[in-house]
Amino acid sequence: MIDDPNFETRILNSPGPISEAFMDDRSFLSVIIGPVGSAKTMSALRKLRQVGMRQGFRLDAKGRKRRKARCGVIRETYPSIEKNTLPSWFRIHPESDGVFSRKAPYSHRLNLILDEDEYGQPSDICELEMEFRAIGDQGVEAACRGWEVNAVMIDEADLQPPDLLSFLSGRVGRFSDLDPSLVVDPQIILSLNAPYMDNWVYKLAVEKELGELLSPELAEALGDRKLIETFIQPGGRSPGAENLHNLPKGYYNIQAALNKHRPSYVARMVDNKFVPQQFGQPVNPGFSYEQHVRPLEWDRSRPLILSCDQGLYAAATAMQHTPMAQIRTLAEAVIMHEDGKTLMKIGPTAFGQMCRQMLNDHFPSLKPDMLRVVADPAAFAAADRADNEHDWVRAFSKSLGAKVRPAKTNRQTPRLEAIHRAQAEIDGYAVDPRCRHLIRGHLGGYRYANATNGDGEARGRLEIANTIYTHICDAEQYGALEAEGMMDFVLGRTDRRGASRARARERVDHGQGYFSGRQP
Ligand SMILES: Nc1ncnc2c1ncn2[C@@H]1O[C@H](COP(=O)(O)OP(=O)(O)O)[C@@H](O)[C@H]1O
Ligand SMILES: [Mg+2]
Questions:
Q1: Which pTM does this prediction carry?
Q2: Is there an atom of ligand 1 within 6 Å of 246 CB?
Q3: In a 3-state reduction of DSSP, which class is residue 48?
Q4: Which ligand is nearest to the CA of 46?
Q5: Ligand number with the minimum distance to the CA of 159
Q6: Where do the domains of the chain lie, and which CATH numbers do they carry?
């Protein structure tokens, strides 16, 4: 019998467009990342409930549609479920709706009326059971054993153990007591604050490194659905911040002020930024994942700049600049050890081959006259230098099969400024998500050495810490200078590297754009 007369959920307003898109998303793994208080938990729970209501139905003896669904929520402990997850759930369905049981695993049985007939009698009913489980000290495997659910939500996913996902992916959508043909779009839903870059969810949801998750069976079961979709909300102090209308006034400013001494906390919890676990100030603070990372298209009509930082840990980026001299970094060449934490040494010949491979992979049939290769000008110092850097360039150039030119300068200030300016301008900078190492660099892996020395003495000059990210970020800077150089030339500010304007005009393709310098 229908014991719960509620027709629809309590009146809830829309937290914002990203939350809405997340709630509508049908991907197998659906992820929302946002600042504290942005309605992540609430939206994820509403989404879970919607999956329940979407399940197939049988007609009962009275000709009414009957749907059955079981949805789960999992996180570390029952106290954290009690304190952080249930209050949000009870705003959707108070404890007094249906039957709530606090015996572990907690469950909430509801009869949701989805439609009524012309006499006001229920004609479409969903029996929804919500189950709240804690991993506790029994471990992930034991916690998930025998669980049969249509969908599951992992709250604060970055705080849960990484193997949770592989256990759950085998559990959703499989039932011993339900007709498989009635199961619709099983899902795993993740909600979390911006994770540290070293966290498993960053790899999975941001870098989309899916590892063994994508089995052939899963791929087949997906049908027209995507495997994973990640929704990144704006920071709490950004223009598009979501759910502000449901929060106390000044919520994020207060959070930021209270936590001023913990910059990485403010970055993650308030501004929704990904940060490395060891936090020195990032060299490129203007970088924002949300604003700057997106799939980019290669423009065949414009030159491609391959810029490298040479040496034992050589790295390179492939970049283009738009007619407005905006920077578009399309690909990277960098070689890491398997651990993903240290760089591998590489010689100039092998590095040349690696770059050639990268060009082949991402820029098929690139015309040689559309490629410009630049390297640290230090490498072009007199050939009699002891460190033989000139030999490096020569060997690299030979194996790459292209001429290598010195970058405009290797002075640090103009190099950093080229990137800072681009990242500060509206649409001045964008990077393709495949440039994983570079992105981690911009997120703060490329950082200053710790600002204060032990006795708290004021720092003299900021020094960039020597990390695995300096090479790739240096490489990109050389490319950025190149783009700027071209823009200066286009605007008639300077000639490219002092070359005569007539010569430069022949060599450089400025495209068809407004600033191309071509006569209409
Ligand atoms: N759609 C909504 N309508 C009204 N209030 C909401 C809605 N979504 C969230 N809230 C309220 O906003 C606050 C933060 O929501 P919550 O889901 O806990 O955020 P998060 O998990 O992102 O920290 C809570 O007080 C919650 O009740
Ligand atoms: Mg929450």
A1: 0.68
A2: yes
A3: helix
A4: 1
A5: 2
A6: 17-232 (3.40.50.300), 292-490 (3.30.420.280)
